[in-house]
Design a protein that fits this description.
There is one protein chain. With about 260 residues, the chain is α/β, with parallel strands linked by helices. It has one domain: Ribonuclease Z/Hydroxyacylglutathione hydrolase-like (Metallo-beta-lactamase, Chain A), CATH 3.60.15.10. Helices cover about 25% and strands about 25% of the residues. It comes from Zoogloea oleivorans. It holds the Pfam family Lactamase_B_2.
Length: about 260
């Protein structure tokens, strides 16, 4: 199994600033931010599943355009997985015939272009080929989850957007084959209060989080705000003890 980074920025601006999206093999997305827009039509056509961490625009922006682009050319609906609360938000505020058509009823409800699949914390989806995606707890300003992506080659955890979360730490520490941890750090410590209010991490909170992790995975930092990215990375480098976190970047590929 391969996981490729399509987008990992906390903002836009320039060719390398794409918001959050990970491509698992050729057919699964973890979030669907603006990075999905760099895929060719034939690549978009192969996507069968989208696992959404939460309903904020930088993580779901390309779902409506993806379904609109390939729906008619597919024989099966694209399945969007997420917590019941996240899917309710998508139905109510995106696929509502006002912002975008309700593709879960197009061309009809018996044969739609889009299907929603509820997924609660602790539940897993088996995707064939020994692949599995499991929802993990996260703490954000809207209902949110992280995801464990696993195969015979080990596990990768993606935090999604989250504040410091004891339940997420506990869930990570229950994963015996953890190889990679992709974790957000949106703001530098100068914006500590903003990080707390918006339920994101800053370097000092990340350090507290990583101190509690029992395993020794590779740690990769995502969701850096473009205007503060280098400052945030410099602060992370001074904090993070036995870990040497690195900045995630578009095109990076993980093998499991």
């Amino acid at each position: 199994m391969k996981v490729r980074v399509l987008g990992c920025s906390g903002g836009i601006g320039g060719r390398n600033q794409r918001t959050t999206a990970l491509l698992v093999d050729h057919d699964v997305l973890i979030d669907a931010g603006t990075g999905v827009g760099d895929l060719e039509f034939e690549e978009l056509l192969q996507i069968d599943h989208v696992f959404v961490t939460h309903a904020h625009l930088d993580h779901i922006a390309m779902i409506p355009l993806l379904v609109d682009t390939v729906g008619e050319a597919r024989s099966m609906p694209i399945v969007v997985h997420g917590s019941p609360e996240t899917l309710r938000i998508l139905r109510s505020h995106i696929f509502n015939w006002l912002v975008w058509p309700d593709f879960s009823s197009i061309p009809d409800r018996g044969n739609p272009f889009l299907r929603f699949q509820e997924m609660r914390v602790g539940e897993s989806a088996k995707l064939g080929g020994g692949r599995q995606v499991t929802a993990l707890p996260a703490l954000h300003t809207v209902p949110a989850v992280g995801y464990q992506v696993s195969s015979e080659g080990g596990s990768l955890v993606f935090s999604g957007d989250t504040a410091y979360s004891e339940p997420l730490i506990a869930a990570i520490n229950e994963i015996p084959d953890l190889r990679y941890l992709i974790i957000e750090t949106a703001f530098p410590d100068a914006l500590h209060d903003l990080a707390l209010a918006s339920r994101h991490l800053c370097p000092s909170l990340l350090a507290l989080f990583l101190e509690r992790i029992k395993a020794h995975p590779e740690v990769w930092i995502t969701h850096l705000k473009p205007s503060r990215a280098q400052t945030t990375l410099d602060e992370i480098a001074s904090y993070c003890g036995r870990f040497s976190p690195r900045a995630l970047y578009n095109g990076l590929e993980f093998s499991l």
